[in-house]
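We emphasize that the prediction below concerns an isolated chain of 121 residues; any contacts that depend on oligomerization or on bound cofactors are therefore not represented. The input was used exactly as deposited, without trimming of termini.
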Amino acid sequence: MKKPMMRNKHPLRNNLLGMSTKRLLDLKFDPIVENVKLARKYEEELVYHEMLRKGQILDHEGKPKRYSSMAHTAVMQAYQKCINDLMRYGYARVPETIVTEEYDDDGPKIPTLNVTLNIKK
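Result of the prediction step, given as a token string:
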């Protein structure tokens, strides 16, 4: 087994732990705060696209600006990705399937299967 590199009689691995967090602190950068700011910008962009869709934003000639459903969808997808990234910091993912079990007085209820046999003579 190979030993980790040594620096000042301590494994190098221990010195590297938390370096990325320290680096972010040195840069005064908080990824959660920046993600929230980005999400707010996407919300503003979504409002803009909704107004475009309704024809409420006019160009210099007084005609409604052209609405692009592809651009609107791209902003929605980017907003959803931003939200999903933020979810990692506070919530666990919800499973897509739900398993339910029925219980009676003795514990889990065992499903019964009724079979009807018709005998022809």
